[in-house]
Structure formats: C-alpha cells, structure tokens
User: What shape does this take?
Amino acid sequence: MLKKLFYLGLIGAFVGGFWAYKMWTQPHKKIADQKIDITISAHDLVAAYVRNENAADSTFSEKIVVVTGKIAEVKTDSTNNGSLMLESSDSIKTISCTIDPFSEKPKTAYQVGQMVKLQGICNGINMDDIQIGRCVPAK
Assistant: This one.
C-alpha cells in the first residue's frame, strides 16, 4: 500500500512539475492582438470615475481598453520602464499608462502634447491615478 502511494505521489509531482514548466515558459500575450473591450477618450474615462468610482471600476477593470488623449507628462522609473500621464478633465484624477516592455514603439518616441491612442489593460484606480498597464499604440 505504501509503495502505491509513493508511485502515485511521484506521478503527481511529475505532472505538477510539467504543468508549472509549461505555465512558466509560455510566451506573453501581445496586447495588440487582444480583443478590444472598450474604446474611450481620456476625458470620458476620468469623468466615469469621478461620477461613480465603484461602477467605473466594475466596468473598466481588467478589460482591454483603447484610450485616446493628449500626453501631459512622460516618465521613466528606476527600472527604465516608461509611463505616460494623459491630460484629464479633473484636476485630481489622472490616467497613468505604463508602456508595455515588449512594445515595438520605444518609450522615447512619445512627446508631451502629442495625441495618442493607446491599447492596454485597465487595472482600476490606485489613489487618484487610473492605471492602464502594458500599453501599446492602438491600430
């Protein structure tokens, strides 16, 4: 009986290890190839969060969004990741778009005042920043 449990555990460990290996080595999904859930302007996105934060979070969070707006600020953090702050109609809430590290367009190509159309994953609101991650230029 103990021998059967040992072999069953060994098979379970092998299957679990193989599954973990496959998950670890799978390629990243390209955001540009994902189905777009919502297309919205930066002003309308901010207005939705100002009206009702909980309703907007349930509508936009974890969805693929295309947001159009004017760049207010270009940032680079300590790990050399780029992010763009889009102009908004509200003086408190802002939209922070983190550039996808796998993006074909370099983060240095963006300029303040430039109109952009970005596709990314809306991660909801953090403090007063509406977070959109893994942004790439939308088609």
